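User: I'm preparing a small set of examples for a lab meeting where we compare how different chains pack in three dimensions. I only have the primary sequence for this one, and I'd like the structure in token form so I can line it up with the others. Please keep the answer compact; I'll paste it straight into my notes.
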Amino acid sequence: MTIVPLFPTMIFHWDADSFKENKDELLKYCYAERKKDPQGVTLSNSGGWQSSSGHHQESFLYSFLRKQVVDYFISTRLFREEVGVELSNMWININQKRDYNAIHNHPNCNLSGVFWIKTPENSGKLHFVNHNDFTEHTFLKCVQESVIDKYFAYFQFQMDLVPGRIVLFPSHLRHGVQPNQSREDRISISFNIHLTEPE
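Assistant: Understood. Below is the structure token output for the 199-residue chain.
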């Protein structure tokens, strides 16, 4: 039997360099931003606090995250040299007990990501939904589990939340974060990337 995994959806993840040395400063910045704007905004978040996305470009947080992303692209040689990469916006998520982020996607950008800063035990998982779950529903229900596992052809896929880990995925991919069941804050940074094609 030959199976060709045609048109895969690529998800990238890696652990940020020097995260441990900078974790306290990153946490301090997140809490300071919430103190400045306790109301925050409501987008994908159910409960919890989410910052606006337009004013972090001059911050240590932005510089730290941008360097991690650019260094990753350079070290992996993922893109052609002529490709332009812009970390276009980012925002902070602070979720307390039972707070979560509903399933959503990020229009008008190419890649989206999340940078986990604080993830206590039992604080949920990052949750992705197969964009073919409607059109291929019956087929996927009929396929052997061993084939589903081998080719990651799940209806849904979950990833553990690891402090210092950055996860990057196509912006159209529907995703959310499960409720935080711990008594501590779960803190992450969400961000979007615009790519410029080579001429």
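A couple of notes for your slides: The chain has a mean pLDDT of 95. Helices lie at 19-36, 60-76, 137-142, 145-151.

User: Perfect, thanks.
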